[in-house]
Amino acid sequence: MALPATPHSPGRLVVVQSLKRKRCAGCRRGPLSLLVLEDGAPRCLDCADLGHLVFLPRGDTALTRRSREGSALSAVVVRFNRRKSRYERQGVLVEEAALVRAEARCLADAEARRRRRARDARRRAVEDERFAVAFAAEILRLFPGCPAERARAIAAHASVRGSGRVGRSAAGRALTEGAVISAVVAAVRHVDTPYDQLLMSGVSRYEARRRITPAVESVLRTWQEAGEATG
Q1: What sign for the dihedral angle of Cα 216, 218, 219, 221?
Q2: Could you tell me the pTM of the whole model?
Q3: Average pLDDT in the 116-129 region?
């Protein structure tokens, strides 16, 4: 049974990953894992003058593109998918020197990206630290009686990047009074009341919040009045 016709594009050589035990029509070597169809007859890579090329599997778009750009001779490798009745690309054949150069360029790019990520991470860390300090200062302005260490802990927790907490919201980033108070209330709820234990015992969130509201308000009032007394 003859091989199905391979796709053809002008100026592009096509090599087939054979599914059948074919022999080269020229040198009779086989079975061939890779072959070229010339006038319907299978040829090995050596007979097709492609034997010096190396195979690069698909997957790395940048490496493939650079390898083909740097290779004077290249070929697309395809394999026939019986279920879909079509040829599918498996990779390319390129000159080994071109592949080596392309790998070096990609590694250099990867190192550049690594350095850029490191710089970005340092910049974000500095920004996050400054924001946490500003957030803690705003907590202490609104609640002067709040221990400084506690204010720093609340600010750090509320402003963790990617956490979705109030400190990362637009209002939080703007240090609005409502956002800061919400962060303080949440911290007091979890640390200074039995709220978590109520949830673990099966009490609904709304009921648990109702029960601990007086305790939360007492802590907030103490922190506010402490500042007024000092003033």
Answers
A1: positive
A2: 0.54
A3: 88
